Amino acid sequence: MNAIKQLFNAYIYGSMHVAMTVLALVLMTNHMFRIPFDWAIATFAWCGTMFSYNFMKYDGLFRVKKTAGRRIKIIVALSTVALAVAGISFFFLERVTQIIAIVFFGLTALYTVPFFPNTKNLRNWSGIKIYIVALCWAGITVVLPLIDAGIPLTSDAYLKFSQRFLLIIVLILVFEIIDLKEDDPHLKTIPQQIGVKRTKVLNLIFLALLFFLEFLRITIDYRQLAANLCMVVATALFTIYATPNRPKYYTLFWVEAIPIFWLGLVVLFGQKLF
């Protein structure tokens, strides 16, 4: 049991779970726009996410107790492999996709590292973190697959980008509710500014908007609509029951698994992924 727990912790804290979430959203985009599976995009998204998230968490990782040293070494090794694989897959992307990917990587770097003296990184800019993360996730999981497949950015593409942006905002807000006791007050997260109850109401409004935006699609797929409804209801329940007293796994595993659950619903309802 101890070995299983260690593997599970390596999976969670090594950012493999969040990488699976990003991959699930990429596959959702493939499904929605009938894009054939592209190993280069899938690999770049998975490995790039794993490396980026571990890179962003480096400062925190090295401040944990010494007993976690072995885990840190394992995460560093896995991150190095992920970076190498992401680098290889990068060269199999279309040129325009590579340029857009570099832009998002630049945002990730700015999020972590202050590029100018006496300045903060984007992570510490009051109130901006949530929008940078949502923009990067929506861009990587919607824009990159479409651009690489040569699909024009139609109204449906902008609609899906907006829905994906809203979904990530919603998931981050659940994280911020759980982390309320630990977050620095200077971060000015939404729960810090408006309280937990109002944050939950805001989340439910965003989820309703996300769902009803589907009716603006050029062609409405009612099986996809049913999958969306199940995903929205599940996310709403996680929002309603979120409190600062919940254990970390509430968000680190269950909330981050919502996009994976969404992808599973697509399969369950008999739809082809790509």
TrEMBL record:
Coiled-coil ranges (or none): none
Transmembrane residue ranges: 7-29, 35-53, 74-93, 99-116, 128-149, 161-180, 201-219, 225-242, 249-269
Keywords tagged on the record: Membrane, Transmembrane, Transmembrane helix
This protein's name: Prenyltransferase
Organism of derivation: Flavobacterium arundinis
Lineage, top ranks: Bacteria, Pseudomonadati, Bacteroidota, Flavobacteriia, Flavobacteriales
